[in-house]
Amino acid sequence: xxxxxxxxxxxxxxxxxxxxxxxxxxxxxxxxxxxxxxxxxxxxxxxxxxxxxxxxxxxxxxxxxxxxxxxxxxxxxxxxxxxxxxxxxxxxxxxxxxxxxxxxxxxxxxxxxxxxxxxxxxxxxxxxxxxxxxxxxxxxxxxxxxxxxxxxxxxxxxxxxxxxxxxxxxxxxxxxxxxxxxxxxxxxxxxxxxxxxxxxxxxxxxxxxxxxxxxxxxxxxxxxxxxxxxxxxxxxxxxxxxxxxxxxxxxxxxxxxxxxxxxxxxxxxxxxxxxxxxxxxxxxxxxxxxxxx
Length: 293
Ligand code: KIV
Description:
Layout: H1 7-16, E1 20-24, H2 28-36, E2 41-44, H3 48-51, H4 63-75, E3 81-85, H5 95-107, E4 113-115, H6 120-131, E5 136-141, H7 147-150, H8 160-176, E6 180-184, H9 188-197, E7 202-205, E8 213-216, H10 218-222, H11 239-255
Parallel strand pairs: 1-2, 1-8, 2-3, 3-4, 4-5, 5-6, 6-7, 7-8
Helix pairs in contact: 2-4, 5-6, 6-8, 8-9
The structure holds 3-methyl-2-oxobutanoic acid (KIV).
């Protein structure tokens, strides 16, 4: 029996007024750490394309990319709900295509639900995927897959007309069966109004504290993506600096012959060649990950 957090658990959190913590994760070791830290939703977002694969937008991300990373995250996750993003063109072409691709993320990837971007225009697709037994999270506001239509990474819903449109899109997604809705870069009062209006949890990113939960990008919060820090993010660590400094020290140690030493070397059972130097005289058990006979 799967003891991971389910969409029903997430819904119950809204009713109880408990905040939902969602975080992007893209690989096995970080999935394990994030799971141990007690995150509710481990999310393989298509930001993968930017923060891991080095593209300048999320548009080049493919189903194969998301599947590959979803499998790794699912293998490293025991407790969190595993949510996979539907990449650009994996759900826009036809509902049949969308159901097949969403199904692959569960069947092959090991996710428990999928997320896709858009409001009324994708509501029929959301309904069809949900009818196929696949839980769907919606995504409104700044929807990066429509970046060329939006004219850049801008706050959405700032005018009364745009705000009403966003609210109607949220209601349409809920009616189509979405179990939660991401609100990205939406003014704080609008996000709160949507959160009060819909019965499903809202998960904010740049949408203020009034949402039912928050999502952030791993690389932003951990200081791994050095290029810039979005206004909505807070840096909780400088792991990028830690990595760079550690690798620099390793390189210096190799060049100065300080690495490896006895502790990282092995010796023969019966010496056949010249007497081992002092540096290799003591046997050392190999690490478990690289079991050496
Ligand atoms: O892909 C992603 O990381 C996202 C979040 C920004 C919500 O969609």
